[in-house]
Amino acid sequence: MTKYIFVTGGVVSGIGKGISGASLGRLLKDRGLSVFMQKMDPYINVDPGTISPYQHGEVFVTKDGGETDLDLGHYERFIDEELTINSSITSGKVYNAVIQRERRGEYEGATVQVIPHITDEIKQKVYSVARQSGADVIITEIGGTVGDIESLPFIEAIRQIHAENSREDVLFVHTTLIPKIPSSGELKTKPTQHSYKELMSLGIKPNIFIIRCEDVITDDIKEKISLFCDVPVEAIVQSYNVDFIYEVPLSLKAQGLDDYVLHKLNLDLPDSDLSEWKSVVKRYKETTQTLSIGLVGKYVALHDAYLSVSQALEDAGYALGHRVEIQWIDSEEINEKNASNILAGLDGIIIPSGFGRRGIDGMILASRFAREHRVPYFGIGLGMQTAMIDLARHEFGMEGADSTEFNPDTPYPIIDRMVGQDEDTRLGGTLRLGNYTCELKPGTMAYEAYGKDKIDERHRHRFEFNNAFKERFEEEGVVVSGMHSPLDLVEIIEWPAHPFFVGCQFHPEFRSRPNKIHPLFEAFIRASINYKE
Ligand code: GLN
């Protein structure tokens, strides 16, 4: 029997609901349950793929090509499961499906309404994830704050799921903020009481409260919440402010959250010791050495735009005994004159993904600097492409070499839309999304790093290395170490005349886990440590 846990937020957004849900997922997985996660976002965009990185942060890509909210990245890193496109539901996606069905005449003359048609569609997304994943527990986070107009259909749908299932199969977890009054230092439970009332008026009685508060909440605060919100004191835990997000599961476990959840779900399971997770946190606590990695991009003003990349860098650093200090470098600020000043002193340079012309020149200067100064360089997506443009222009004498994304009239279109295919089979205007297989060439750095010859990795891009230039590049000494052979696409490129100069077309950051560091991030950080020493 599938169990459903719904995580709602009260008082304000941005209090780490995603981390709380993901931490609960980790705790339950450690108790031996299979866990799958899902997020409902009340906005009208069909997916976050079109939202500016400045507004929404990174777009996380699932294995089946879903463009989703960055919270899914937290979920994957915490529960170590690959999620799917159905793990991300937006109002836009729900309405889109219902309207298309209406246009096909499938409602047979009915007036299409929020209840039951929109709510049925939402419920169906929850139940289908349960069926497809076969997981014991589905944890679904509802974005936004209870009381928002936009989230009402989602709240109503989860109320109905509660009504349709046995009591012991559906749990409601409410994450809320206890503010502190600056002048008196008093902690106030009133907003939480209001949020509880709001949920109750929508037919939902929360079973568990996860509290965020800048101070440690005392027993009398818990007793007050217990009294006003009708839950036992054991049902109230605090998600403390921690230095390192991976500490959250440990702190929630220390307060007995998993025991209480299992008790409510009527499950009797042996205890776990979270040993693997503890060792990740221990490494973090013990790390004293630092490593300075320059992240050159154009959305650096908002660090969330590169969340998975920065997390993968930090996790790889800890695994190798170094605290990675990311230097956020705006590629638009780099020019010929200041490049060496801005980039001096870094132990490694990474250029992650990006779209559009803006900031490209600075990226090409950064990869050139890394290449000429033998600083370890790791290019991801756009970062691979700019490195190849640098090599072509400055090493191979191909003046004006470019990507047709930035210059359609370039004499050397070394990065282009998929070529060598007929018009029909071109990936055209759409993105190459999701997992693709990649075969590695023995004897290369990539092959060494992965330790196998066949991998799969996640993609999100339109442009590819142009095979018309592959031979020329190889003659010049470039090593193509990874290919997706069914479509003859170049996936990983290395420049062996350098200690570590590697680019990949895909996004390894989406596959890195705190307890299973991605091989390319590990190799890059190792090279950066060697460079520093
Ligand atoms: N803009 C480039 C492309 O579409 C790179 C995208 C990316 O970095 N994933 O191919």
How would you portray this structure in words?
The protein is α/β, with parallel strands linked by helices. The protein has 2 domains: 3-279, P-loop containing nucleotide triphosphate hydrolases (Rossmann fold), CATH 3.40.50.300; 288-532, Rossmann fold (3-Layer(aba) Sandwich), CATH 3.40.50. Helix content is 36%, strand content 21%. It contains 18 helices and 21 strands. It has helices at residues 17-30, 53-56, 71-79, 91-103, 114-133, 152-164, 190-201, 219-229, 247-254, 257-264, 275-286, 307-319, 339-343, 360-372, 382-394, 445-450, 470-475, 519-532, and strands spanning 3-9, 35-41, 60-61, 67-68, 88-90, 137-142, 170-177, 208-212, 236-238, 289-297, 322-330, 348-351, 377-380, 402-403, 413-417, 432-440, 454-461, 463-465, 479-484, 489-494, 501-504. It has a 9-stranded mixed beta sheet, with helices on both faces. The protein has a 7-stranded parallel beta sheet with strand order 5-2-6-1-7-8-9, with helices on both faces. A hairpin with a 4-residue loop joins strand 19 and strand 20 (489-494). The radius of gyration is 25 Å and the shape is globular. The N and C termini lie far apart (55 Å). The model is unreliable at 420-428 (pLDDT under 50). The structure holds glutamine (GLN). Glutamine (GLN) binds at residues 353-355, 381-382, 405, 460-463. Residues 353-355, 381-382, 405, 460-463 line the site of glutamine.
